[in-house]
Amino acid sequence: MSSIGTGYDLSASQFSPDGRVFQVEYAAKAVENSGTVIGLRGKDGVVFAVEKLVTSKLYEPGANKRIFHVDEHIGMAVAGLISDARQIVETARSEASNYRSQYGMQVPLKYLNERVSMYMHAYTLYSAVRPYGCSVVMGSWSEYDGPQMYMLDPSGVSFSYFGCAVGKAKQAAKTEIEKLKLADMTVKELVKEAARIIYLVHDELKDKQFELELSWVSKGTKGRHQLVPREIATEAENQAKQALADIEDSDEGEM
Amino acid sequence: MAFMGDMINPLPFWQNGPAPAAFYNFPGNSSNGPIGQSTQDFKAHSANPITTTTTVIGLKFDKGCVIAADTLGSYGSLARFRDCPRVLKVNDLILLGSGGDYADYQYLRDIIEQKIIDEQCIGDGLQLKPKSLYCWLTRVLYNKRSKMDPLWNNYVVAGIQDGEPFLGAVDKLGTAYEDATIATGMGAYMATPLLRDALEKGPLDEESAKALARKCMEVLFYRDARSFPRYQLGVVTADGVIVEDPVELKHDWTLAHMIQMK
Fold this sequence. Notes:
heterodimer; A: 5-stranded antiparallel beta sheet; 10 strands; B: 14 strands; Proteasome_sua/b (chain A); proteasome (chain A); Proteasome_alpha (chain A)
């Protein structure tokens, strides 16, 4: 595995003989090693849930958040190298501010997605810089467009999703997400599902402690992106822990 | 043209993109500027206010502050734009009123609103306080005037600062002062005595403060030649900021026939 790209993987400005840009693929590897992020787009809004791995008991709870606000109406959940991600967030904020200044309205997510994607892509063109080692999931709700969610990866490619997952347990998370009928669910239901899925796919053996970050943007929040209020988040977490305990208690054992 | 560039000095494709070996451009510095243009290109000059708004009055009461201003944008002596709201809710702690050139107010208003959005994005629960906005406004206005390029406005900043009501004014020269009652423009001459008299008798409660503000707006409409009977009231207390919809003044000119000019 480690010798696959030999010779053609030293710079992002080089193709390999089979047409791959290895640096971009290696950046995606950095994303795969990070805590899981899932995004769920429902009927009336978008929910993000992040499995924030806590590597030391000495950390202050709530430090190093992985969900960010971009402008008032857009949320961004990040996976991968967190400092790279913070730069993307800053760029997105700057673009959103620019749009607001020029056009007098908040930037529609579609346009912000294009700008951020092009920005991330720019870093895959030169040998002097490396691609961003992070994937970001952006979501918003507006009266005009309804709920929207996009996921961007280090290559600069982005898709619009109803449900997406990145990070360590993305395969397991995707399997769970596919079972949901997202288009019919409200954000209140999705928050519970998101919490449940994160608890389900979290690997207790490899990573001990984690914090669950939940955020949403919906018709109910009037298009404002916010962290899920504490009572609702705690209730969702408790239900998730209960669901996990039920599975372990039952005769089925492993999923 | 600014967009061309040439072989020797090519223009960059994008701002803040990958720039190998260049120094890092801290975000937020050039987000509003056109590509490649620096502030030295603009000539400094004294402004002429074009579309103007008149008095702003502000007064403190026991638990907060009230600000009132009418909604007229005058074009010289023409009462041109009748829906120019100028009492702004900045955040849950701050109310801002503005008089003077309306375009200059709109410019600063957009900048202040972006400040608040940037603060919300940080999401640490800390909010801009009235005294901070007051100080920032003073610095901006003073520095602009010192370059002979003023923002031709009078601002009244009201809010709750560390649990106490705060009321301050900043003018186009960057003069800043705090007081329990503030009136700018024509109101400085006409409303100030009314406001100070009432406060001398003792602190007001919210209802009497609002009534006093409404009374002042009425007096100003009768006497200020650039005023308008529709005005907005804003109230800030520890519970938050409410900017009411514009209301119409009831005015009575029946005594006009009694006035005799020799």
